Amino acid sequence: MAHETAHLKEHLQPWFDDGNIVLVAEGKCFRVYRGMLSVHSPIFRDMFSCPQPADQEETIEGCAVVHLQDSASELQHILRALFYGEYITSSSQPMPMSVATALLRLGKKYEIKLPFDHMTRRVKECYPSQLPLMSGPVRIEGTLTERDPQDFLLLNVVREVGLLTVLPIALYVCACSTKVKKLLDGYEWEGVHYSLSPLNQRACIIGRDQRSELAKRVFANIFSKQGNRYFIGDKTCAQCPARCCATSLPTDPFSIWDPDWDRRFCTRCVPPFKARCNKCRDNAFLLLPSMFDVGSNWEQICKDETSF
Fold this sequence. Notes:
3-stranded antiparallel sheet; 6-stranded mixed sheet; 12 helices; elongated; single chain; alpha/beta; 308 residues
């Protein structure tokens, strides 16, 4: 026989008077619709299909109760997205990180496609998958607000929910812009301590160490080594030898063509050298997944990325 909860717990929105299921998290209650949850989430659908023993079934105001091991605030965010359409009706509206993490985490946990896919698009806007013409991979502020300066929280959530195609770019930016002490110890920002997960911490430290090696590897086809010096130039061109540029090897695998080099080569040689330089940058981008041990290549991590 079902038993009515004698002392009602705190009600939070959404709370529908004609709802037929009560979700409880951290002592907070949400009265919603079983059918709508089942339509959007196969996890909830399976959960509701398992009957509870009659003598153990708990009710609140005649509704069955389901206790969840989730943060009440995160559960509220995803329920408001589902039942009110909040947060997910516009991609241009700013969204706090607290909401973003809730929609990603619980979206994945309960396989709720609509908010998860919406947040996936927003996160990918923060770290474009196309290599910029004039720089290496970059961080874009996008529409997510209250991000910590080094994006430790976003990086951790991205790995947690399996957005693998974001990781190589985000890890590269973090590894190149963050001091080792912060990578190891974390840092304080606006009264909150931020630290990387062990996997992200390891990836960033390894990435910092491999950055110059990656540059050496990808630029090998346009730089030739003579003794302890590296040269760029076309030794077969009669007009260029006197202007061949002795240079150090780039330590940035996404180094762009130096405009000063235009004056050191003949007009015939500049275009193919620029093309080879751009090809080197593209090759470096292709190697980012393996550099950070996310996967062997972009095709693999696209295939392995979370989707439902």
